[in-house]
Each structure stands twice: as structure tokens, then as C-alpha cells.
Amino acid sequence: MNGLPTTLEADGIWLQFGEQKILQSVYVKLQTGRITGLLGRNGSGKSCLLKSIMGLMPTEWQSVRVNGHYIGKPYQQPGLIRYLPQHPFVPPSLTIQAAFDWYGVDIRELAEEYRAIGQFKNQPFGKLSGGEKRLAEILLILKSDAAFVLLDEPFSHLMPVQVEQLQKTIRQESQRKGILLSDHLYRSVLDLSDSIYFLHSGGRTIRLTSPEQNLKDMGYLNS
Ligand SMILES: Nc1ncnc2c1ncn2[C@@H]1O[C@H](COP(=O)(O)OP(=O)(O)OP(=O)(O)O)[C@@H](O)[C@H]1O
């Protein structure tokens, strides 16, 4: 691939577990400089889709292309893509400082805005509260040097003031990255996103044209 990655397209993703069809020919497109939202009911397959894009799921078929070039295992490409899973992923014995060093993120840049990060930098992850841990993990992924970032429920466990701060950081980082944002805090997803996909329980994505109305029509929001 020549030049900097600017577009990532995941196409024709098919995934099933036994008889249960999860994803059926799903398509999503990410672009650097843009935030793409992903919404869908509980269990519709959003987390599976994010893992599939990374190359971490045993899909029946899928094609991930960066600037039009097929990439077999996106997660193996240095500087291409990072993924925030729903569940904690940093080993509990690692300190915040050590984790940030490992991901190549300068903790000093964040410590002023996110006081807790600076304050607890010598604490191991295992001793942090659920919200503190989540915040540190989101920032690790979001600030690391990658062209694309996939965020699975970044706002869960965070108090409102941190959600607001994080929205600001997501906007800042989107100036140089393509971000896929999936969260049930739909208002934040709608406010931040340049375009929004809805994953139907049948396993297909549609792009929302009038997000709020579409979400009501599909029963994701009360009308
Ligand atoms: N490893 C697995 N083996 C079997 N079934 C799985 C596996 N992983 C996920 N599933 C099933 O796939 C479906 C989609 O799960 P997924 O976690 O992707 O949903 P989701 O849209 O992220 O849900 P939520 O909004 O509740 O987080 C669920 O029915 C789940 O039980």
C-alpha cells in the first residue's frame, strides 16, 4: 500500500455460530478525519463486527480493504488499527505509566486534562476502580498512533463529566484518525458521528439518513 491509510472498508462480512447467523454481508466504511457511529440492539452483533474488522473473529468470509488494498489480518499491521474491547484488557499488575509507555502514548500530555490519570500513574491497573480503569484504557487506545480506532462502548462506567471530556478527546483525535464508535449512549454517538450505521438483528448494516427518526421507526428509541 502506498501513502498514508485514509479509508478502511469492511465488506461482505459473514459470521455465524452454529445455526445462529450473526453478520450477513455487512459493509462499513471508515475515513480518517471522520467519526462513524454504530448502533444496534443488544446482541445484534456490534462487538462481533468490531472484532471481525480487526481480524480476530473466525468469519465465514470477509474483506477488509485499506485505500482499496486487501488486508488479511488488520491487527497485525503496525500503526494501522487499534481496538477498545468491552472488557478490561490491560494486565492488572501493569501500572498506568507502564501501559502508556508500552502503547507509546505520552502520559504528560493527558495528565493535566485527565487529573486521575496523572494522579494514579504509578498504580497498577488492578487497584483502580472500574471507571478509572476504563478511562485509562480508552485513552491508551484513542491516543495511540494508529490510523483507525474501533471503540466498543467507551462511555460505559464513566461519570457524566468524563463522558463530556472524552467526547472532546474523541473529536480531537478524529482530526487525524478514522474512528468507529459503538455505544448505547446514543445521544453522544449521534452528536459525535459524521455518519451512522445501524446493525439489524438480521445481520445487515444500513446507513441512517435521518438518525433519530430512523431509530424510532426501528424500535431502538421510543417514539
Ligand atoms: N464466541 C461466541 N460464541 C457463540 N456466540 C457468540 C460468541 N460471541 C458472541 N456470540 C453471540 O453473538 C451475538 C452478538 O453478540 P455481540 O456481543 O456482538 O452483540 P452486541 O451487539 O455487541 O451486544 P450488546 O449491545 O449487548 O453489547 C449474541 O447473540 C452473542 O451471544
TrEMBL record:
GO terms for molecular function: ATP binding; ATP hydrolysis activity. Gene3D superfamilies: P-loop containing nucleotide triphosphate hydrolases (3.40.50.300). SUPFAM superfamilies: P-loop containing nucleoside triphosphate hydrolases (SSF52540). It holds the Pfam family ABC_tran. Keywords: ATP-binding, Nucleotide-binding, Transport. The keyword Cytoplasm does not apply. PROSITE patterns: ABC_TRANSPORTER_1, ABC_TRANSPORTER_2. InterPro entries: AAA+_ATPase, ABC_transporter-like_ATP-bd, ABC_transporter-like_CS, ABC_Transporter_VariousFunc, P-loop_NTPase. Residues 8-221 form the ABC transporter domain. This is ATP-binding cassette domain-containing protein.
